[in-house]
């Protein structure tokens, strides 16, 4: 029985999915396979590459120790992967289909039409595309209403984020169902109500990346400096507090409102090649109200305490991994030297 | 004895500094005070606010538990803080001065001239400015050659990064000395060879921030979605692998070269409002060579193993903090309820 308003009666409940089909088994598709297996699903995978099955099993096996450390779902097993000889065999009997073909529009269009043809009409299909809108991709599908974007981040078996958005011909129930399903499968989901090139995460990542490329192009910074500015700087905060909450704290007791009112003029500074938007009263109020939701009643001193605790936990965790790796390298060196 | 080429004979070795003066003791200046105390320095602080001493000691005390968890240097003590009544008393006898006044150019110019007047000429002075160049700020100082920018990230007592750069009248030895000193004081340092508005880290941060503001202004994303896209997505990777190393891995075995050759055209995609630079052969080669330095001989499979291990360590560390906080809240609830 469907739990999502408007879904066909035959559609599984998002939390009741047992079998997931993965079409395309490269780095992203294979990462999805590993994720779904680790969450206890049966997975049926298909990829047209001649050697796909062997490579996919290798990818899953190499991710499995990490997934085991992170905690497998009950009954999760690599043995629950079936690699099929045809696309139709993969999607027949699946409760959900994840498409992860290479990023070529013509390929995505025809593959999604093929999946649509082969999969029962009550089954939702998610595409891993990072570059195309579902409106562009669903044009040849006979039942485009159940096609959504479910955009993961690399590697899909570790990064929690999935961005879900439909196309012009997608029905609302499919977007809601997919969002609920990904959550049930252990993901953190952003459900977008409109299509946007790059979705949300990649727009932010791409802005940072383009500024970095400009700096290297102009000899203003080296690759090493750019990466260090992230890993020794913003990245340590962004692992747990996003850019808005970070700037809320930069505003002290006055928070985001003070930050915008006080530092608003710095938006006009030439600190990046990206022009800032006009800081209208509407934008200011939207930022303050939105940040209030994220803050959810926490005081500045509570946020500072939470930030400090998390930053120290992250830094200590990373230092421990480095110490472990160094010890392992010494042990290997010892073996090698026969000491 | 100075270890840095060209430094005056009376300048302390960067690793031999015992006393640091902090001028300005707000959030940033106070954060520096906490950091230097935790690293075992004597700190002399001055701030013109009437209540500055009390507030500064409060700030240090609230940071101290975090710093203790992170690990104090031998002999580190909050008692080694002296709050002085005048700027001259703070900087007299200091081996290094950190200026952290509010971001107003006229104030910075006159304060740096005052510090320059009061501090022995062999002492290097670092400014925490995030917005001004040292060339703009050093114009009224009699001995501008020892004035540098030492730009921290909030909170300075936790975030390791400091960006060091001189102005037109700064001598090279002072930039080198400051870089060595901050490293000796436990920081990770980017030494820039030219002035650049926003330095390096803030340019990347500001590009991400402006793209986020545009999205909110246009109703394309909410504050909550933007922050979640970071903390459930890129931020978890950026805590340990910067944007360039992340994209190197996205290129698979072919690394950065493959990524640029294959996905280069996506630089033209409207994934952000920031125009990309032309991907010339020179830029491509600079990115590949620079990334090679960061990779430092690690194979793709080694990098994947390192990434997975770190990501899991970060996610587990953050989950542990959340579990601790929830347990503490329950305990407080229990006390409150008298159960």
UniProtKB/TrEMBL annotation, chains A, B:
Catalyzes the NAD(+)-dependent oxidation of L-carnitine to 3-dehydrocarnitine. Belongs to the 3-hydroxyacyl-CoA dehydrogenase family. L-carnitine dehydrogenase subfamily. Residues 198-266 form the 3-hydroxyacyl-CoA dehydrogenase C-terminal domain. SUPFAM superfamilies: 6-phosphogluconate dehydrogenase C-terminal domain-like, NAD(P)-binding Rossmann-fold domains. It is found in: Cytoplasm. It catalyses: carnitine + NAD(+) = 3-dehydrocarnitine + NADH + H(+). PANTHER family: 3-HYDROXYACYL-COA DEHYDROGENASE FAMILY PROTEIN, 3-HYDROXYBUTYRYL-COA DEHYDROGENASE. Signal peptide: none annotated. NAD(+) binds at residues 24-29. Keywords: Cytoplasm, NAD, Oxidoreductase. This is L-carnitine dehydrogenase. It is an enzyme of class 1 (oxidoreductase). Its main location: cytoplasm. It comes from the Bacteria. Homodimer. Residues 19-192 form the 3-hydroxyacyl-CoA dehydrogenase NAD binding domain. InterPro entries: 3-OHacyl-CoA_DH_NAD-bd, 3HC_DH_C, 6-PGluconate_DH-like_C_sf, 6PGD_dom2, L-carnitine_dehydrogenase, NAD(P)-bd_dom_sf. Its EC number is 1.1.1.108.
């Amino acid at each position: 029985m469907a739990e999502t308003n408007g879904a066909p009666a035959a559609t599984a409940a998002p939390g009741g999915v047992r079998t997931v089909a993965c079409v395309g088994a490269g780095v992203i598709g294979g990462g999805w396979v590993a994720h779904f297996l680790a969450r206890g699903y049966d997975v049926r995978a298909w990829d047209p590459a001649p050697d796909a099955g062997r490579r996919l099993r290798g990818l899953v096996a190499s991710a499995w120790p990490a997934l085991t450390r992170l905690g497998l779902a009950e009954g999760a097993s690599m043995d629950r992967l079936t690699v099929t000889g045809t696309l139709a065999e993969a999607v027949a009997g699946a409760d959900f289909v994840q498409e992860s073909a290479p990023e070529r529009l013509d390929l995505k269009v025809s593959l999604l039409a093929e999946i649509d043809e082969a999969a029962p009409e009550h089954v939702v299909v998610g595409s891993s595309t990072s570059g195309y809108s579902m409106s562009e991709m669903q044009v040849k599908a006979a039942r485009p209403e159940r096609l959504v974007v479910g955009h993961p981040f690399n590697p899909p078996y570790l990064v929690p984020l999935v961005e879900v958005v439909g196309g012009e011909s997608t029905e609302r129930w499919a977007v809601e169902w997919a969002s609920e399903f990904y959550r049930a499968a252990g993901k953190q989901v952003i459900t977008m109500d409109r299509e946007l090139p790059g979705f949300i995460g990649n727009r932010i990542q791409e802005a940072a990346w383009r500024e970095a490329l400009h700096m290297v192009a102009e000899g203003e910074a080296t690759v090493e400096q750019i990466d260090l500015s992230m890993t020794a700087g913003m990245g340590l905060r962004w692992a747990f507090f996003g850019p808005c909450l970070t700037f809320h704290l930069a505003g002290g007791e006055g928070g985001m409102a003070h930050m915008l009112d006080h530092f608003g003029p710095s938006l006009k500074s030439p600190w990046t090649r990206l022009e800032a938007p006009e800081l209208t009263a509407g934008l200011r109020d939207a930022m303050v109200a939105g940040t209030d939701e994220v803050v959810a009643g926490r005081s500045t001193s509570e946020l500072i305490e939470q930030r400090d605790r998390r930053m120290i936990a992250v830094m200590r965790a990373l230092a421990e991994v480095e110490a472990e790796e160094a010890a392992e390298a010494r042990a290997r060196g010892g073996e090698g030297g026969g000491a």
